[in-house]
Amino acid sequence: SRLQASQCDAPLLKHVTLVDSPGVLSGAKQRIGRQYDFTRVIEWFADRCDMILLLFDAHKLDISDEFKSAIEALRGHDDKIRVVLNKADKVSSQQLMRVYGAMMWSLGKVVRTPEVMRVYIGSFW
Known about the structure:
Helix content is 34%, strand content 12%. The protein has helices at residues 29-32, 38-48, 65-73, 93-110, and strands at residues 52-57, 81-86, 119-121. A three-stranded parallel β-sheet has the order 1-2-3, with no helix packed on it.
């Protein structure tokens, strides 16, 4: 594994802690790739945080079983969740609309809320 860090002299950052979880696994990797209960870790952080960012890659919209379990573990924290469609600069406007629609359809099957989730679109590399 690799650790990366960044420092910035900004007073606001003295009050902010960012935790970047490892990517969500798919297929057989879900069963053999973790040495801990990923869903329980998600629940632990969700209970303690102020905001949860769910990042979706514009090129990989598949919601794996592990990602679905993670999203389901966030139930009860709906007010903290923000959905981000990332790497939008790598697709055309027409593709972006298709990707957005497909993501909303996939999310609708997992996140059962009466309201449509707001999606923030950006390119964070």
